C-alpha cells in the first residue's frame, strides 16, 4: 500500500518537471485506428464513380516529378447554398489551373453532402481527378474531408486511408494518401538497379478540433497523431494541410512542438476573418505543414486563393444565390520533395 502511494507521488513530481508531457501527451503510432478506403475514378462508359484497389509500394509506378502543387481549402459547410458555392469554387479553380491541369493534390474540408454531390458531377473534376470518397465518411457528422488527386498521379498512388480522431466532438479526422514520386534532378542516388526504393510521400488532409476549451486540449493530440502517421517506416516525407483551427496562444508553436515544419514563410498569411469581416481578429487558421526534406520551390511562395470570391446571381447550375464562396481563403503551394538516404 505504501509502495503504491510512493509510486503515485513520484509520478506526480515527475510531471511537475515535464509539463509538456502533462499538457500535450503524445499518442503512440500503434494507438490510432486506420480505416482503409479506395480511391474513386469516374467511369465514363458506366457514368459512375468506381473504386480502385490500393497498390503496395513495390508495385507502384514511380512518377518523375520536380514539383507538386498542394492546395488546401475549408469550403464552409454552414453558409447558404453549399452546391452553388462549390460550383463557383470549382469554376474558379478550373479557370486558374487550366484544362490541362498540372499535377496537384487538393485538400478540402467542411464539405457538405450537397456540395460533394455537385463536385462529383462537375465535368472538369470527372475528367481530371480521382477522389478519396463519394460520400461522407462514417465518422463525419454533417460535413467532412475530401481529397482530390490528378489522374496523371494515379499510377503512383498507393494506400488511401482515414484516421478518425476518437476524442473529437465533431467527427473530425485526417485522410491520407501515399504517392510514389521521385525528383529526377536530386534523387538519382535513391535508385537501386533502376528501381526507386519502396518509400512513399504521404499527404494528409485534416480539420482539427474547433473552439477553445475542449478544442485547445484536443488539437495537440490530433496533430501529434498526424505526425505519428507521417513518421511510419514506409514514409520518406510527409505533408498535411487543412484547417488547423489555430485560435489560441498554445496553437502558435504547436506544429514545431510535435515535429512538423510550417511551410508559410514570413508574416501575414491570415486565411479567416475577412469574408465577411467579423468581431474576431483575422487568424491564420489554415496551414500546410511538412516533415522530411520538403520545401517551397525556389522563386515561388504560398498563395492565398479565393480572396473576395463570391457566387453570382446566376452560375448556370440552376441554383440562385449570392455571397462569399467560403469564409476561409484557400492556400496553394508548389513544393519540392527530396528523398534522403
From TrEMBL:
Cofactor names from the entry are: Mn(2+); Mg(2+)
Q: Does the keyword Cytoplasm apply?
A: no
Question: Can the keyword Nuclease be found in this entry's annotation?
Answer: yes
- Pfam families, A to Z: Exo_endo_phos (PF03372)
Q: Which residues form a coiled coil?
A: none
The UniProt keywords, alphabetically, are: DNA damage, DNA repair, Hydrolase, Magnesium, Metal-binding, Nuclease, Nucleus
Matches recorded under InterPro entries: Endo/exonu/phosph_ase_sf, Endo/exonuclease/phosphatase, TDP2-like
Q: Where in the cell is it found?
A: Nucleus, PML body
Q: Give the main localization category.
A: nucleus
Endonuclease/exonuclease/phosphatase domain mapped to chain residues: 71-328
Q: What name has this protein been given in UniProt?
A: Endonuclease/exonuclease/phosphatase domain-containing protein
Organism the protein comes from: Discina gigas
Q: What is the lineage of its organism?
A: Eukaryota, Fungi, Dikarya, Ascomycota, Pezizomycotina
Amino acid at each position: 500500500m505504501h509502495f503504491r502511494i510512493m509510486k503515485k507521488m513520484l509520478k506526480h513530481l515527475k510531471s511537475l518537471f515535464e509539463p509538456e508531457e502533462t499538457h500535450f501527451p503524445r499518442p503512440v503510432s500503434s494507438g490510432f485506428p486506420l480505416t482503409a478506403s479506395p480511391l474513386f475514378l469516374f467511369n465514363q462508359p458506366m457514368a459512375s464513380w468506381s473504386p480502385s484497389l490500393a497498390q503496395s509500394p513495390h508495385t507502384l509506378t514511380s512518377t518523375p516529378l520536380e514539383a507538386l502543387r498542394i492546395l488546401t481549402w475549408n469550403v464552409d459547410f454552414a453558409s447558404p447554398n453549399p452546391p452553388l458555392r462549390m460550383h463557383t469554387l470549382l469554376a474558379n479553380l478550373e479557370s486558374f489551373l487550366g484544362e490541362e491541369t498540372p499535377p496537384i493534390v487538393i485538400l478540402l474540408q467542411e464539405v457538405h453532402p450537397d456540395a460533394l454531390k455537385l463536385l462529383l458531377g462537375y465535368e472538369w473534376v470527372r475528367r481530371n481527378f480521382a477522389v478519396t470518397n463519394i460520400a461522407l465518411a462514417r465518422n463525419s457528422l454533417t460535413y467532412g474531408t475530401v481529397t482530390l488527386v490528378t489522374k496523371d498521379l494515379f499510377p503512383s498512388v498507393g494506400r488511401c486511408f482515414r484516421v478518425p480522431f476518437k476524442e473529437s466532438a465533431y467527427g473530425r479526422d485526417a485522410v491520407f494518401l501515399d504517392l510514389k514520386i521521385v525528383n529526377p534532378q536530386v534523387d538519382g542516388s535513391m535508385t537501386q538497379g533502376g528501381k526507386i526504393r519502396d518509400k512513399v510521400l504521404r499527404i494528409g488532409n485534416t480539420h482539427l478540433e474547433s473552439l477553445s476549451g475542449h478544442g485547445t486540449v484536443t488539437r495537440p493530440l490530433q496533430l501529434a497523431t498526424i505526425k505519428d502517421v507521417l513518421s511510419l517506416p514506409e514514409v520518406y516525407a510527409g505533408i498535411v494541410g487543412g484547417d488547423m483551427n489555430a485560435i489560441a496562444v498554445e496553437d502558435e508553436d504547436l506544429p514545431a512542438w510535435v515535429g512538423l515544419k510550417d511551410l508559410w514563410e514570413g508574416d501575414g498569411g491570415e486565411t479567416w476573418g475577412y469574408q465577411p469581416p467579423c468581431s474576431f481578429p483575422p487568424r491564420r487558421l489554415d496551414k500546410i505543414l511538412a516533415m522530411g526534406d520538403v520545401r517551397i520551390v525556389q522563386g515561388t511562395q504560398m498563395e492565398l486563393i479565393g480572396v473576395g470570391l463570391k457566387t453570382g446571381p446566376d452560375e448556370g447550375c440552376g441554383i440562385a444565390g449570392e455571397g462569399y464562396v467560403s469564409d476561409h481563403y484557400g492556400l496553394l503551394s508548389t513544393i519540392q520533395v527530396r528523398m534522403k538516404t
